[in-house]
Amino acid sequence: WQMDSMRRLALGKLAEILGPRALASDKFMRTLGFGKLAEEQFSILDAPVRQALVSYAAGVNAWLKQRPYGSVRALPPEFVMLGFRPEPWRPRDSLLWGKVMAFQLSGNWQDEILRARMLKRLTPEQVSRLWPPFPSVSDPQGGKSSWNENTDAALKMLAESPLGLLRAPRGASNAWVTGNAKNAGGKPILANDPHLGFAAPILWYLARIESPNLKITGATVPGVPFTILGHNSQIAWGITSTESDLQDLFIEQAVPDNPRRYLSRDGFKDFGIRKEVIKVRNAPDVTISVRESGHGPIISDVLRAAPVRGGSALALSATYLKSGDKTPQALFRLNRAQNWDAFMRAMADFQAPQENILYADREGNTGFIAPGRVPIRRNGKGRYPKEGWTGEQDWLGYIPFEELPRVFNPKSNQFIAANNKIIPDDYPYFITEDWAPSYRAKRIASLLSAPAPLTPERTAEYQMDSVSLMARELLPLMLAVRPVTKRQRRVYAWLGEWKGDMARRKSEPLIFSAWLRELSRAIYADELGPLFESYWSLSPRFIATVLKGDREWCDDIKTPGKESCGGRILLALDRALDSLEVQFGKDIRKWEWGAVHKARFVHPLFGDILDGVPLLGKLVNLETDVDGGGYTINRGASRISSSKAPFQSIHGPGLRAVYDLGDLAKSSFVIATGQSGNPLSPHYRDQLALWRDGMTLKLGRDKLDFKKEGVLPLILLPRLDTFNE
Description:
Layout: H1 2-11, H2 15-18, H3 23-32, H4 34-44, H5 47-65, H6 77-82, H7 93-104, H8 108-118, H9 124-129, H10 149-159, E1 172-178, E2 189-197, E3 205-211, E4 214-220, E5 227-231, E6 235-241, E7 247-255, E8 258-264, E9 267-270, E10 272-280, E11 283-292, E12 312-318, H11 327-336, H12 340-347, E13 355-361, E14 366-369, E15 375-377, E16 386-387, E17 395-398, E18 406-408, E19 414-417, H13 439-448, H14 456-463, H15 469-479, H16 486-496, H17 508-528, H18 532-535, H19 540-548, H20 565-584, E20 598-601, H21 606-610, H22 616-620, E21 622-625, E22 651-653, E23 655-660, E24 668-671, H23 688-693, E25 697-698, H24 703-708
Parallel strand pairs: 7-16
Antiparallel strand pairs: 1-2, 1-19, 2-22, 2-23, 3-4, 4-5, 5-6, 6-13, 7-8, 7-12, 8-9, 10-11, 13-14, 14-18, 15-17, 20-21, 23-24, 24-25
Helix pairs in contact: 1-7, 4-7, 8-10, 11-12, 15-19, 17-20
């Protein structure tokens, strides 16, 4: 089911089984055209990679043939509930996951829309301050001449669509590698925990695979015949998001009386047009026309929440929508690389999205590269939608592979990639200005600086660290205001001793988080007006700049008086305490962060249907209180704009792995839920407590160990005739 639902999402075929509620998603995905891109991608891959995809599909289909309707060997319960049988698996279907992940990890186009809409209320400089570090104001509006009622209608339409703006946590992850000199065993140690949205089952599936020519262990993804994160017999690797700006929105000017033509830098051109027929369960088919300009597909056509006057339209340009993408080939070769040179040859095929990939080998070498296509723009930095007909922000090409960020055997004997800035100030190319705050990276560096030799076990402990450097930075600024009431003084005394540990049994993280949430509202809700909830997040770097001196934001523009930051801080504290007392009573000692900071894993189909149903709801949806927060190494990010569960942990490390290059068999793993996708299986949830408490599993034990435990290997014997290309 996990494989089939991923395929249907990517191909825009969810409405076929879910009905009209999935139409918005299907229209958008059909517009992106992932199905066509996957077909083209398959055709350009080398023969061994295509054969791997063909063989994998043959195995999936052989399994499907063994599950006839009415058989005891039934299909997963989701198929039974919805009353359909999955179509045969095609080789190109395995390529769709990469496209979906690239889309999910490259979502800055939504920020472009939000920034553009803010210009109706704020100055360009104010908008820039909301996304620190402050970008250059030499390109503050990205083409103000294009700002007219047609463009505004297009932007408003997108923002109010079913796929509109949500300030959900962005892709994130931790990875670090330490060289021989730091480690007790004299060999490198590599740690990795990728952060994605939570669901049940979790994305990852652990596997140890041995064949005559390949031995590989790590995290696979259902539907993909490659190990995404892991180690083979010689090397290990980990991946985090670079947070690159790999997308741009272009405002296209169509001919008002001929929507098939648009204005380009070289004069008028014809849109590429294709018809897409979407089957809808228990409803008539829906046909859409997809237009495509030279910049990319017109995404505004499929999200008509409001009429668009004139000829304005929004085209999405993204690296994952470009031809020539051999990223699956990079993974295939990465799985088989035995040294740094082979690793680098594999990375040359990586296109989208740009990722930070850390490396270590048994010979003692460590390294890093950020492979992927990063656009070189004629002008500007892609902060706002720009006029497509001027060509001013057109992509001229990509950063050459040889000049992408990289390091081999760093002098510091370590490398850290926690979505922080990974380039020096004099790097000659633009990658992004939206690096993640450096709190996690700095905390990792602090822990690694300890004088004691590092071990794999201590590395795994560091992955569970829940100290927030964000809280350590902001709390003194918030406590600098003199308290007035007895309740405020009591809270000040309580928080004054806190060291920023976001432990689930503590009350301080709850008070601080609720206070900061209300302070965010108090500082910028008045300026943003109806756009507030679209932006609302903790935004610690922005809040810090306000409290350190950018104090005009503290004035409430809706009142005649002049409010101070001190007044807003105390107002936010009182609002937070009022809310917490209603929920938990007046005794602060009984409050706990874990009461609201619960990691929740919802089944994508049964979750909403059975949520709240006694027993059945807990059977399919998994939940546990957890340490950490949005800016700790043990990350548990929330959507604080949520009115129901603003502190619920919905985004974090679904996988943790530590690779011991001294003895790769001792490498450790854990995933957040379990290996099974069947809610009736004990393996649907049997790693949840292990994951929460920082415990791990080892997959490198020998066959004798497994035999003693009654575990049997699955042996696959290939048929020779399947290898005829």
